[in-house]
Amino acid sequence: MKGAILPFQRHSETSADAADRYQRAGKAPTARARVLAAIRSTGEQGATDKELQVMLEMRGSTQRPRRIELQKVGQVVDSGKKRGRSVVWVAAEFAESQLRMF
């Protein structure tokens, strides 16, 4: 468990080590860009984490941390909607366009 700054499960040394390896390999920016592009491609409809995982053929343990990173910097937001029990995520520009409509 080196100096990982990517999200990881604090109680899990394995998770911290994986985040550190992922960061050192430079994979996070590419995966983050893929997640953002996929969310943007869904427009105002948005997507749940599970839908994104299917679209991207990406494991949840890879996709969710990238979405969380995007959320923390304001590029992805909770739409306020749910599909089933899952939050629907949208790119910030689509959430802002919905607000301007009212």
Could you give a short description of this structure?
The protein has 102 residues and is α+β, with helices and mostly antiparallel strands.
Q: What would you note in describing this structure?
A:
This protein has 102 residues and is α+β, with helices and mostly antiparallel strands. It has a single domain (13-100), classed as Arc Repressor Mutant, subunit A, CATH 1.10.10.10. It is built from five helices and two strands, in the order ααααββα. The chain has a two-stranded antiparallel sheet with strand order 1-2. It is globular, with a radius of gyration of 14 Å.
Helix count, DSSP H or I runs of 4 or more residues: 5
The H-level CATH homologous superfamily, spelled out, is Winged helix-like DNA-binding domain superfamily/Winged helix DNA-binding domain
- The H/E string reads HHHHEEH
Overall pLDDT metric: 84
How does the SSE layout of this entry go?
Layout: H1 13-24, H2 27-41, H3 49-56, H4 60-72, E1 76-83, E2 86-91, H5 92-100
Antiparallel strand pairs: 1-2
Helix pairs in contact: 2-4, 3-4
Distinctive features:
single chain; 102 residues; alpha+beta; Arc Repressor Mutant, subunit A; 5 helices
